[in-house]
Amino acid sequence: MLPEMTSPPAVSSPAPDDAEVIAASLSDSERFATIFDRHVEEIHHYIARRVGTDAADDIVAETFLAAFRRRSVYDVSRSDARPWLYGIATTLVARHRRSEVRYLRALSRTGADPLPESLADGVVNRLVTHDQKRRLAGALATLGQGDRDALLLVVWGELTYEETARALDIPLGTVRSRLNRARHKLRARLGRNDLTKETHDG
Amino acid sequence: MDELHMLAELRRDTPPIRAGASGAARARLLEEMTAPSRSRVRLRPIIVRAGVVAALASAIITAIAVPRDTGGDPARPGVVAVLAGAQPAVAAVAKRARTAAEKQSTEKVPADSWTYVRTLQRETESHDLSDLRDWYTADGRWNAGVDDDGRVTVSEIDPERDVPSAAFLLGAPTEPEGMARHVYAEVDRIIAAERAGGIRSSTVDTSRGRDVAAFALVKEALKRYYVTPRQQAALYGALAYIPGVTVIEDVEDAAGRHGQAFGIIDAQSVRSEIVFDRRTYRYLGSRSVFTEDYTESPPPPGVDSDYDPDNPLHFAKGTVVELTAKMDAAVVDGPGQRP
Hints:
- By secondary structure, chain A is mostly helical.
- In chain A, 64% of the residues lie in helices and 0% in strands.
- Chain A has helices at 18-25, 33-51, 53-69, 82-94, 97-110, 121-127, 130-142, 145-155, 161-168, 172-191.
- In chain A, helix 5 (97-110) runs antiparallel to helix 7.
- The N and C termini of chain A lie far apart (54 Å).
- By secondary structure, chain B is of the alpha+beta class.
- Chain B has one domain.
- Chain B has seven helices and eleven strands.
- In chain B, helix 4 runs antiparallel to helix 7.
- Chain B is globular, with a radius of gyration of 21 Å.
- The model of chain B is unreliable at 36-79 (pLDDT under 50).
- At the A-B interface, helix 2, helix 3, helix 4, helix 5 and helix 6 of A face helix 1, helix 2 and strand 10 of B.
- Chain A: Residues 36-102 form the RNA polymerase sigma-70 region domain.
- Chain A: GO terms for molecular function: DNA binding; sigma factor activity.
């Protein structure tokens, strides 16, 4: 529920965009709840795909707290706050790097994704075979954190290269080179057949 | 299907946020909005874990007489409560490194100078060897990289994202005890900043106790940055003040070079190692290795953890989980330049 506005909005006026809401939240902090309501599901889904739903519950809360505390430096020329939120979420995920790599390794070794209750496992298995999934997870685990961040923001967050650069606070050229490197690695690993050599402790 | 399409499908069916979790997150946000000040310190789960880990470590590392953290007060960064006594074996190596360093001219690195570091890194799963080239200014304000097309990109470093910073070495003490205090003060600063939400990315893991974090800080500084011979000797000397650090005889770095190493074992039975040349004492590289078969055990009740009883994490003794080699480090003329 939005707090009262200073003047009654016209019936047909469009909802204020993220930048307008964030600007308004500087004087009326509770307006920021709108940003939470608009984006919490999407940001949570991205985090949960990376570190599991349990850790994601906490990280998503931290993400919006951090965003709220930093709202005064938000670039109000950006009407969509998603790249900004993805950037904050990504840096918080980085603190959980151990659990992320652990998830990926477990999937790579056993083929069983330790992320809790899949809703429609069959759909994924039809599209991606078991072996490919294992290899893909194994390959993801070997990427550097920066490369994985850029790759997953583009593929899972569906951000553009420019939005990814803004989210990670890195130059556009760096996003390109990180994605090149990440794709190259994934391709190399997916092309290989002998998994036994790759699982170190298997 | 190409790799990006496959990746787009991976875990696409992750369930949406539960209403309870969403409501709790929203309530925390509302509480923050209506709070009179932001100075409240929330005790993060990581701090709880640090205590548990320290307790576990004491059970494993029996060689230490009093296996405990050396105290310190994260609320007062820079104040080191107690510095443990220096361990003779580590101190002796550091002293010889100091003697070797004194044969070279004293070097002063200006704050705005560019430094270059080339590192080989063995990836743990694929066993690929990555060849990494990085440039930093000595004050930790700027870094640079060269992309696949040979373009040099210079970026300003966000201090919240770059921990430890190269600035940690700038003007750092060149004698062991002073360096040890400098190291613990920085660890306490990192812990305090993490609690206050002022650090967004760090390679110093503080969740395994203050001493393991102090070792990690020294290791990261040696691994990532240009270090003068005297600072290097002082960093080795600082290790003597960290309880649990030992000297290991023969360790091989990512480039296949053999040397001695300093090591410390954490609660997961992982020994973190700093490898150095046994004659010149030059830092060679880093390694982390499981010293025992390790199977994750359930966390104590009430401790936040990602433990999965159906699939506990397992590593065989001898599994190497980190292997690097510092191939080159120098002060250079500018970003993208090599010595």
